[in-house]
Specification:
Blueprint lengths: L1 E2 L2 E4 L3 H12 L4 E4 L7 H5 L5 E2 L8 E2 H12 L5 E3 L4 E7 L2 E6 L4 E4 L1 E4 L5 E4 L6 H4 L5 E2 L12 E5 L3 H10 L4 E5 L9 H12 L4 E3 L3 E7 L3 E7 L5 E5 L2 E4 L3 E4 L15 E2 L12 E3 L4 E2 L7 H19 L14 H6 L7
Parallel strand pairs: 1-9, 2-3, 2-10, 3-6, 10-22, 12-19, 13-14, 13-19, 14-15, 21-23
Antiparallel strand pairs: 4-5, 7-8, 8-9, 11-20, 16-17, 17-18
Helix pairs in contact: 1-3, 1-7, 5-6
The protein binds flavin-adenine dinucleotide.
Amino acid sequence: MIKTDVLVVGAGPVGIFVVQQLGLIGLKAEVVDNLDKIGGQCIELYPDKPIYDIPALPICTGESLTNNLLEQIKTFKTNFHLNERVQEISKEENKWKIKTSGKKTFIAPNIIIAAGVGSFEPRKFSVKEAEKFENNGVFYSIKDKTYFKNKKVCIFGGGDSALDWAVELSKFAQVTLVHRRDKFRGAENSATVARQLEKEGKLKIKTPFQISSIEGNDKITGITIKNEEEKIEKIPTDCVLGFFGLIMKLGPVAEWGLNLEKKTIPVNTENFQTNKEGIFAIGDICSYPGKLKLILSGFHEGALAARACFKLARPNEKYRFEFTTTSKTLQERLGVKKSD
Ligand SMILES: Cc1cc2nc3c(=O)[nH]c(=O)nc-3n(C[C@H](O)[C@H](O)[C@H](O)COP(=O)(O)OP(=O)(O)OC[C@H]3O[C@@H](n4cnc5c(N)ncnc54)[C@H](O)[C@@H]3O)c2cc1C
């Protein structure tokens, strides 16, 4: 059970920046994100693309913006709980109890939802046995590559993730890379390396093939794949990895009893609170008259929501507005001035 002042759902640019706004006013935040990395759309969809409308940054990329935002909150030593989807929210004695897909539980007086367009979810195998074996032989991401050491692994997909992991895991596992087309979509260089490894007998490649079935009782023992002519091949395997890209789903946010409007959460523009006290929504997920789905709008929304969180987290204290340029307290919190 983790107690905190504010639980932030989503580690996109807006979720990261709100941590800074909370930290400045002395509130502690924990951040949960479904993805295996921090940065939301900026990192998942356009890490190398230039952004030209972040105030005072004439140009940055999705990746450099994320890195700068993280640098700005370094002093607060915030915990990011990655690969965890916020699943359930319930009220318990004036506080919110938040449960994640990884069975973590948080208790907080405030929740800030900065969930963007919802959670990014991996596209999954369509064969019915895949669900039964999910996380027990069937995986859509790799948390610890050593898990696959000396195992027989079948990797599906034609993009960069499939190619890169096939090359990497072939160093210590028996890897078969399966793709439904002959040509790979990923970087040409990675495809060339994979083909070279195939020639050297270090990697097997099966194209154009798709999965047909997964076999086994408690554990996977093998799979069958088929091509367009319905030719079936059996491959003995311990693990199956699918890298078919991500889809965006509103996901569990829709089940938390919040008002919803076209897959967004309506909020007031005074403090970005939803229809539930202590639950705020900022960034792309929130809606109000005139809402702009821009990063800079999310930053403003976060600044106001953070101040509103103060009331519930410190009911006996009075919030005092201060500037970072002149406030000793804020500079101490930022770690730029030592306390006397
Ligand atoms: C190609 C492209 C170019 C863009 N260019 C610009 C630009 O130039 N300027 C600009 O201002 N904006 C731009 N945008 C828009 C900008 O990226 C978004 O406005 C911004 O990312 C919104 O930030 P956010 O933090 O609200 O949400 P997101 O970045 O979407 O992050 C939300 C995070 O929440 C997580 N999440 C959702 N639900 C859950 C859950 N239940 N549990 C745990 N985690 C969850 C998601 O996994 C995700 O990581 C662009 C967008 C795209 C796609």
